[in-house]
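Known limitations

Structure tokens in this collection are predictions and should be treated as such. Users comparing against experimental data should check residue numbering before alignment. To illustrate the layout, the record for Large ribosomal subunit protein uL30 is reproduced below. The input appears on top and the generated tokens appear beneath it.
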Amino acid sequence: MPQIQVKLVRSAIDRPERQKRTVQALGLNKLNSTATHEANPSVLGMVNAVKHLLEVTEL
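Generated tokens:
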């Protein structure tokens, strides 16, 4: 499967708890932190739920 790199570009402060936990589950803690994941349906669903906070790049 292809891989994607996600970068947290907007803060999760003042977001619903569900979105905060989704960002944390993606392995993103601080602003501008990055994580690489396989592009499987579960990860893509999490990325889609918080896409307004992320920058996604295909590798």
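For this record: The chain is about 30% helix and 25% strand. The longest strand covers residues 3-8. Please report discrepancies through the issue tracker.
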